[in-house]
Structure of CRISPR-associated endoribonuclease Cas2:
Amino acid sequence: MDNINYKMGWLVVFFDLPTTTREDKKQYIQFRKNLLEDGYLMVQYSVYARACVTQERIETHARRLRSMVPPDGSVRCMFVTNIQWDKTYIFHGKSKPPPDISMPEQMLLW
């Protein structure tokens, strides 16, 4: 079996942020914007994922996440290997299917 599929994977972020006040909404928008600028893709509301190819990248993005959390927010992140990600079940109703979120192609630099 290919070991690379166990090292590469997705950092999945789940969050609950308050949106009751104007300041809460501003912090929510900024948090979401930061995720998107850092390469995360929206899987569904309050669930975002980003491809990570090494343990160092996972730790880097976890540190960034920690620094972005609003004071009253709750954020969890979980690493899922590429094998596990490929085995997820996706169910949806009659609306259009969700976008395909697959591991990006790796570039070879020399």
